[in-house]
Amino acid sequence: PGGADAVQLEGIGTAAMNVSYLNSSLTTASGDLFQYIGDGSGGGSLTLTGNAFTNNEPTIATGGGGIAVVGGAKGAMTLDIQNNTMRDSLTNALTVIKSRDNAAGTNNLTATISNNQIGVAATANSGSAEGDGMEITSFGDGNATFNVTNNTIRQYNSSGIQFVAGSGVADTGQVN
Q: Which one of 1, 81, 83, 97 has the fewest CB atoms closer than 10 angstroms to its CB?
């Protein structure tokens, strides 16, 4: 209780970061419950499957409380986010960002996001008290492919799913 991120994994520089986080339960963080940053030149993968994310921290920081996944700036990234439950985030329950790095050239991100349950029916703000159920963003340079299927999103206070293509900088990336 009162700590920052419950789980934070960061691969930068020349790192390749391949992570499987399976069948776990996280219940409190004032920052993110789970944060993965895969921006090393070796790229990587994240398999996030079968987890229960419930944030009962009374002092969640602004912009915190959910799951944040960032990658694809310097190396190719593959994400598999399936069969998780997420609830009680202050900001977006799930944020996925294809990041960019002008000096690294173009790199691709491929994500499968399916069969996740965000929020609880008839429980106010249980998906997100201030944000989206999901925010899926690509900052350009390289292709980003998102396969988003069969998710249930309830009790959020902005958008169920918000897709953002680009960061206001001219790039040649493509969002699929």
A: 1
Give the 3-state DSSP-derived string for 109-141, with helices as H, strands as E and coil as C.
EEEEEECCEECCCCCCCCCECCCCCEEEEECCC
Instruction: Report the distance separating Cα 105 and Cα 122, nearest Å.
Output: 46
Which residues are paired to 25 by β-bridges?
A: 52
User: Nearest to residue 113, comparing CAs of 130, 128, 92, 141?
Assistant: 92
**pLDDT, tens only, 13-59:** 999 999 999 999 999 999 999 999 998 999 999 999 999 999 999 99
* DSSP conformation class of 14: T
Q: How many Å apart are CA 174 and CA 167, to the nearest integer? A: 12
With beta carbons less than 8 A apart as the criterion, state whether 10 and 70 touch: no
**CA angle, residues 37, 25, 70, in degrees to nearest 5:** 15
Distance (Å) of CA 87 to CA 29, 102, 142, 156: 12, 35, 32, 10
The model carries a pTM of 0.95
Asked if residues 136 and 148 have their Cβ atoms less than 8 Å apart, the reply is yes
CA distance 138 to 150: 21
DSSP three-state, residue 170: coil
Going by C-alpha positions, the residue among 83, 157, 95, 85 that lies closest to residue 118 is: 85
